[in-house]
Amino acid sequence: MSSSAVIKDQDLVRGRAAQQSPRPKGPRSAAAREERRLPWYHALVTAGIALALSVVILAGVQALVGLLPEDQQVNLVGRDFSPFSLASVLVFGYVLHLAVAYVYSRLREGRRWAMDRVVTLVVTGAFVIAMIPLVSLLAEVVARGLPRLLTPGFLTGTMQGFTGGADGGGILHAIVGTVLITLGASIISIPIGLFTAVFLVEYSKTGVKRMLGRGVTFLVDVMTGIPSIVAGLFALALFITITNDPGIRSGLMGSVALSLLMIPTVVRSSEEMIRLVPHDLREAALALGVPRWIVTVRVVLRTAIAGLTTSVTLAVARVIGETAPLMFTIGGLTLLNANLFEGRMAALPLVINGQYAAGAAPCSGDTVINYFTRAEYACNTGINLERAWATALTLIILVMVLNVVARLVSYYFAPKTGR
Amino acid sequence: MTTTSPQKTNRTPVRLGDRIFTSLSVGSGLLIFAALLAVFLFLLAQSWDAIRASTEVMGQSGEFSLAEFVGPLVFGTVLAAGLALVMAVPVAVGIALFISHFAPRKLATPIGYVVDLLAAVPSVVFGLWGGVWLVPKLEPAFRFLHESLFTRWFPMFQGSDQEVTSPMRNVLAAAVVLAVMILPIITAVSREVFLQVPRLNEEAALALGATRWEMIRTVVLPFGRSGVVSASMLGLGRALGETMAVLMVMAPGLTYTLHVLAVGQHSTIASYIAAQNAESTGLDMSKLIFAGLVLFVITFIINFIARAIVSASSKK
């Protein structure tokens, strides 16, 4: 085996070795045999063994527990825990697999490789565990939210006049509110964030500015950890102090609260993007006698524009779903208000929380009348949760679209950095 | 960044545009300082009424005790965040190792994106999912922990039958949702640190015949320890301040019990604030803002320490 192959990586060792120097045929030493690694499909064998064992053992436990009197059952496994279910078979099977794989590998490959196998399984298991909530969440939101989302009028109507279990209503007011409030937050945070990033990369080179730059970098990092509800309380406290009106609520307050959360995200990611711009470009422009600020605007920012678009889009995607900052600032509303500066507004996350908190709707009769439009609707006790799920689906679609757009922009328009 | 900076020469006159642009960008930097200071000052200003009216300041004649008001909230916050951390850190470190060292090269980046997707899900959607879907799913497991011979001796799983009832909207259920929500940040930071391990050290270990696990144990983990610690603290900061998931999953209460399966015993600062009437004014609002100030200070300190560890270890 050539030395260049050895120092690469385990994965590469096998590939390179096969290409460059075929393994010598013939009997190998005991040490070499011990070091040999089994192909991946042996994991399937051990997994099969573990799963079969798990089924047999848990079914046996289930049968044995079933023979016991009821109080003894509770003693052993609790009141409504069934040892033999899909989830328990999989979990127990996974744990068994660790043991089975260890023993199998220990016999075939030796102690050290066996440990390696177990760790690989544990680490892969950690990844699978993290996928369970993601997959189930997305599946639940789509399954429960899609029917209501596709109902005519859901995306084009408001909640004006809807009470009780009236089977109707829409979220147009919340969509408008979310878009306007997020737009307001972007208008506040993008200039501040970009200028701060420019300062950090272009201007914090020497003396006092350098120290200031260090401090800003550190505080921006700390700022990313500000709890969202504190941002909301800050906006409230700020506006109460300015206007001296404790009941003040407006979309602008929501924008201010969101911008506090958005600025650090914009700064961090745009700073990285601006740093990627090659120094040659700046120097070439400066050498031609172009003023510094025009170099920054026309050369540096122009080159980094794709990355900046990505970072801003991701920052928007991050704050568009924030709920807590809006609770104390925009007040919530069932009708359409498109004025950011005056009056309460609605937002998608607040609608989700509100409808969820409302829970099951009371139904005294078969129909409910919308007191505003005088239209008659069927009564549906589950309507509030249906609206909550559909709104959640709308919000997730918005966030995912923003994420995908951001990735596409950075993928197709990324600056050529010579990599 | 220090060596190749285009130095401005003293001969060229400073143009007006340059001066404006420079002051704008320096001003934005200063604004970050100002914003953090403003958060603290405005919260303090609006919670001043509550501070002044409390027994701590007024002696016995105060209207209420701030310590009694904030104490259970801080306890609940720390308990929920601590439980979440205990569950999230091992899984997150596992995922970070999986992405950085175990997954096939081609899959590593997509897998990273998938984990980041978890971070993109809005917290209110996590709350909805936790409250509607997860809580009933967890109930059999909670019953097992509470009633089974094997686990019921553990003090934290105890509690009277009135307390441990369905629906199991207890602090452990909230902590599970919190753990899912802080997974992405812990994973992302740990992954970055694991990827920074000097390649030569790893290759040297492998060349000496170490298995992948031995290489990780002897090279990657010692190098990444401080990174994992600070990643955990960042996750802790997130968990301390998370509002919606706790609000929508947990039934609130104000006690000091450690019985994590008991329903309606705990509240966190953030969820308590969010659960109160958003229209309250006067002293009530002032108390809420004071609770927010406490939360801000706690998370600020945690984040401060975490970031200090990160920047100290990255300077090496």
From TrEMBL, chain A:
Predominant subcellular localization, coarse grouping: membrane
Topology in the lipid bilayer: Multi-pass membrane protein
Keywords for the protein's UniProt record, in alphabetical order: Cell membrane, Membrane, Phosphate transport, Transmembrane, Transmembrane helix, Transport
Xref: Pfam families: BPD_transp_1
GO molecular function, one term: phosphate transmembrane transporter activity
GO cellular component, one term: plasma membrane
Domain ABC transmembrane type-1: 175-406
Region annotation (Disordered) ranges: 14-33
Recorded family membership: Belongs to the binding-protein-dependent transport system permease family. CysTW subfamily.
Function: Part of the binding-protein-dependent transport system for phosphate; probably responsible for the translocation of the substrate across the membrane.
Protein's UniProt name: Phosphate transport system permease protein PstA
Species the sequence originates in: Helcobacillus massiliensis
Lineage of producing organism: Bacteria, Bacillati, Actinomycetota, Actinomycetes, Micrococcales
From TrEMBL, chain B:
Membrane topology field: Multi-pass membrane protein
Xref: PROSITE patterns: ABC_TM1
GO BP: any one term: phosphate ion transport
Any Pfam family: BPD_transp_1
Keywords: Cell membrane, Membrane, Phosphate transport, Transmembrane, Transmembrane helix, Transport
Membrane-crossing residue ranges in chain numbering: 20-45, 73-99, 111-135, 171-189, 243-262, 288-310
Domain ABC transmembrane type-1 positions: 74-306
Top-level taxonomic group: Bacteria
Gene Ontology cellular-component annotations: plasma membrane
Gene3D superfamilies from the UniProt entry: MetI-like (1.10.3720.10)
Major localization class: membrane
Molecular function per GO: phosphate transmembrane transporter activity
Compartments in which it is found: Cell membrane
PANTHER family listed in its UniProt record: PHOSPHATE TRANSPORT SYSTEM PERMEASE PROTEIN PST (PTHR30425), PHOSPHATE TRANSPORT SYSTEM PERMEASE PROTEIN PSTC (PTHR30425:SF1)
Role played: Part of the binding-protein-dependent transport system for phosphate; probably responsible for the translocation of the substrate across the membrane.
Entry similarity comment: Belongs to the binding-protein-dependent transport system permease family. CysTW subfamily.
Name used for this protein in its record: Phosphate transport system permease protein
Organism, scientific name: Helcobacillus massiliensis
